[in-house]
Specification:
mainly alpha; 9 helices; about 170 residues
């Protein structure tokens, strides 16, 4: 019997493969199932929609990062964010394919749902939206410009941008 994670990866890989040749909105669940080698009932036991396939993969990737950060509390901001960009580079296929399929709003929602509240500001939804949008746009710019900067350079850029945004004017 195949594991649930293996099944999820098959659906994800099938969807990404189809997104390279078709518009996201025109991809049918039956096509994903055919490419993945599963039937529709298996798909619907695992997911509710195509976007859930991408969201699940995105969440699983960011969970790896969250676990790493929890184990490295003594790391600096730049060290933690460098690891974040390493993870993003490794998962660039997901993000670039989603961007090319005009799913930026869905990606932003995923970032927002996974972006932690900052203890310094409490549960200020406006602050969280501002920070999430900023980080998301930096990441998106990096992806769409060919990821020329290293993960370390991107962490330093993000640190500088965040510090400048937090400066008193």
């Amino acid at each position: 019997m195949k594991s649930n994670l293996f099944t999820k990866e098959c659906f994800y890989n099938a969807l990404i493969q189809l997104m390279r040749i078709k518009e996201f909105d025109s991809i049918q669940i039956s096509e994903i199932c055919e490419v993945a080698g599963y039937n529709r009932s298996t798909f619907y036991r695992t997911y509710k929609s195509k976007i859930d396939v991408l969201s699940d993969k995105f969440t699983r990737e960011l969970d790896k990062y969250k676990k790493m950060v929890e184990q490295t509390k003594d790391w600096t901001f730049v060290q933690k964010i460098t690891e974040f960009f390493i993870l993003l580079r490794a998962s660039s296929d997901l993000f670039i394919t989603m961007h090319n399929s005009n799913l930026d709003a869905s990606m932003y929602d995923m970032f927002y749902n996974l972006y932690p509240f900052d203890d310094k500001f409490g549960e200020d939804v406006y602050f969280k939206k501002f920070r999430t949008a900023g980080v998301f746009q930096v990441v998106l710019t990096w992806f769409t410009s060919g990821m020329k900067e290293s993960s370390q350079e991107m962490a330093e850029i993000l640190e500088r941008v965040m510090n400048d945004c937090n400066a008193d004017y």
